[in-house]
Amino acid sequence: MPYEAKDAKSPPTASGGGVGRGRVALDLRPVARPRGSKCSDRAPDQTAEGARATAQQSRTPEANGLSVQLRVRGRVQGVGFRPYVYRLAHELGLDGWVRNDGGGVTIALRASERELARFTRRLADELPPLATLDAVEESAHVGAIAPGFVIVESAHGAVSTGIVPDAAICPACTGELITPGDRRHRYPFINCTHCGPRFTITSELPYDRPSTSMAPFTMCPACQREYDDPLDRRFHAQPNACPQCGPRIWLADAHGFPLAHDDVIAAAHARIACGEIVAIKGLGGFHLVCDARNAAAVQRLRERKQRDEKPFAIMAANVASLLPFAEVDAAATRALLAVERPIVLLPKRAGCDTALAGIAPGLAQLGAMLPYTPLQLLLFHQAAARPQGLDWLDEPQDLVLVMTSANPGGEPLVIDNHEAVARLGAEAGLADAFVMHDRAILVRCDDSVVRIDDGGSRIEKAVSERRTRSSVLNPQSFTFIRRARGYTPAAIKLAATGPAVLALGGYLKTTACLTRGDEAFLSQHIGDLDNAPSRAALEEAAAHLQRVLDIAPQAIAHDLHPDFFSTELALGLARALGVPAFGVQHHHAHIAAVAAEQRWEGPLLGIALDGVGHGDDGDAWGGELLAVDGAQFQRLGHLRPLPLPGGDRAAREPWRMAAAVLHRLGRDAEIADRFKAQPAAPVIWQMLRNDLRCPQTTSAGRWFDAAAGLLCVRDVMAYEGQAAILLEALAAQRPDVQPDAALFRIDADGVLDLLPLAARLADEPDAAHGAALFHATLALALSDWAARAAQAQGLRTVALGGGCFLNAVLTDALTRHFTGRGLNVLTARQAPPNDGGLALGQAWIARHLLNEVH
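The structure assignment produced for this chain is given below.
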């Protein structure tokens, strides 16, 4: 009988606990907990056998009559779970054994009903930091249980576990790292079962040292003793090493030649302090690093990377060091300090752009993260003059670093030392020096990026309370912009079990997704497939997912666009494997991705807003109102189409979309004068009048561009989405601007026309007021649009998908409108709403299609 996760808010309680009785009500959802829980480290004054002897003295006579077996599913391998069970069983004086198996962990116990209830309750309450439980299934144990409790050899069988994500350095390792005299003092590869690399060093299952990039490093006797000791927190820590037996770091010049230094960390810090750009090899790839306070160094990095305006992420020692530059609330603090260590978008404080000139020009938010590798932490320790103890980690530190991905030309992240010299070194002209090491990165994995949601928990709670089915929602208070390091390849639970499907995403922000049973596994962020290395990276990621999950897909899913590389790859894989391939409409997949992660079964409405997606009719869609029911969807409406003067170039130049709107309004004569700084303005006027090279699109993203162009916010973008990001930042300055219901129309065919709103913006002198009016009115228009469809279709739930829902101003306003109308709102919480989550939706739809076939 499974002890399933429940939506309880009170502490877990036991009701029974023996074989054949009901369900033990344990809350098995992942929760934040202090590192080093009660049973997570060796007790300082009591051995396991001593604890066992003490516990057994108080056992009751009936304790010897019940033999049970517990099958534990969840994130329970490679996270110190077996030694945790071993210590807990010894503490409670229980006999039995624990082992890994293909499905997770099996525990055999001889215990009384009371002891079993106590054991299962504590099992969930005191988990190791990286462990999570999905279910604990109880049955009678067949066979004898010898006295004592032991860890036994792993059992074989069908694999239903996987590799856990990489995790930030834990407090225990941090303490050892900076403590003089410790044998791992200042060793940049320190780790244990609570922290360190997992996903990025593993080539395939099983997760044993020979399957990782630690295979070439034979443990010394001291490390081997830790590895073999169930009471040590490094028991079976596959990357375990020390300076005597493990990887090493070195400093190299721009040509890759090693430089002799007694202290690589001190030398690297000195170069950064002098204004140099240093390429540092990390967990999932190289970073380009410079002093964020040094405007000249930041500008040189921009010039070398050819990144004129796109923001850089920064790294600071701690939250206190970020406070001079950004506002950090409780939710942001939790995200920054989480073991996943994502880049978190934070509202800037006044003076941020002066103190950190050139980091995030013109934006309202600053992307920041905290150190997550020992090497990164050592740089900050060095800058702080190597203080004793841990107090300095809570005190403001001066050093702030630019920490940007080393992916020149938008290609995949550099991971190999030789590749780094070729692509980043003297000939490429990016890095002045390198910090390298000899632990290979087997899987490239970029930093994750998240946006804090002010009302996320409240919104999700309201949704949960209205549902007629039970649901376990992700308690996080943020939305993914990019899901990669720290989260990949963590499973996304699905509503039901189903066939294995591999989905390959679209063209931009690509990820792959592989399903197994009732779980979906998104790959790390791959990026845009506009270059050969990125395409090869998608192939590698898809193959790696199949290896680390030990799954052969029964179908392949892909975007409908016939010219995407992901489509070509999907069709080739389907032929090679002899399985069907399913083309999935882009916006259907966006809505399906939200339904999948929210475990929604049944029909619902979907609003899909993004830049572009291939429509069923071959046109460019992007502002869609859909009715979705599993593998089927119906297009109920769309935004009024706009012409794209010059085709795809209009998606990069908002002034062209503004010109298209003026043309629709009959104000062609204004185009040349309004955009006289653009040499092509007269030509665009003629193209619009004669309908030459002006394909139509229903894209919401192009309406945002048009608004930015009309309000003179941005004529030409330096990076994708820049105009919409700037428009949102302006709108956030004027939260009191009210929507105007007279500025949109909805016709009988379900077409939402925003031309009246655009006409108002064309005459608006205040860009901030215009931006706020655009957001407020668009939210009202979308809610009216969907509410009419909801009534007509008899549906009460609306899913929001597509990249436009990374816009917090729009998403929050629209959610308020829907909840005020009594409609349930589903949003993306565990995958990005943009094309980074597309593969999840494709896989979900393909599973439905397979089920229909069978």
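Interim note for the steering committee: The longest helix spans residues 767-793. The chain is about 30% helix and 20% strand.
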